[in-house]
Amino acid sequence: xxxxxxxxxxxxxxxxxxxxxxxxxxxxxxxxxxxxxxxxxxxxxxxxxxxxxxxxxxxxxxxxxxxxxxxxxxxxxxxxxxxxxxxxxxxxxxxxxxxxxxxxxxxxxxxxxxxxxxxxxxxxxxxxxxxxxxxxxxxxxxxxxxxxxxxxxxxxxxxxxxxxxxxxxxxxxxxxxxxxxxxxxxxxxxxxxxxxxxxxxxxxxxxxxxxxxxxxxxxxxxxxxxxxxxxxxxxxxxxxxxxxxxxxxxxxxxxxxxxxxxxxxxxxxxxxxxxxxxxxxxxxxxxxxxxxxxxxxxxxxx
Length: 302
Hints:
- By secondary structure, the protein is an alpha/beta fold.
- It has 9 helices and 13 strands.
């Protein structure tokens, strides 16, 4: 059985007229008839009823048609992927990430990858976790840095690292001298938090609930640096990861003794669509970058 036999059969099945089908297939009518007859001989069943002017599909032909169409479609898809995605050193990657990760490590990682793959371009999308989760589910992004809270049935998530969350307090605050605090200790303090659409806020709410602590939220923001700036201004306290650069901030990061305050970060992608070679190259670069560093704090990873 040859590929062109299946192609001619599909054309003939839709046109159901040898002369018209031969014209569409750009072959002679006799060549088309021989190809169909050979296919029928190989399968041992008649595929067309030739007793009328129009050659209609037989019962066996109707059974065969959907299988042939699926096979040809799969071959065409494979051909397109092989021709369009044959170079991992070129292409465009759609990369998404939440606001709370932007200033931590992403510029450094992208810079390192760009030096190794200078011809790969990124389309970056920074948004809240709820929106990014929808992007992943809809297949609108290639890869996404996120926490496990964002994953869905169609999304696979690979763990990269975990980072500690600290209570950020102003240096002038009475609690600033403490070596550690519980979330219950700051129940009466004004709290500066991320907006509810962010995974960091969802995790923080769970941690405060575990501690039986219910501080009053006085501000909700989209960016960790904004939260830290407000803490530095003496407006409240916040539960956030430790920033890499705090030289201009009057702020202290105090470990939380109860409950355990950590969040896991991973790389996620939609399993219903294939990744381009460029996206796979970045995916493997990220996996290699974090290999052997499980559980370490973010400041040691960049």
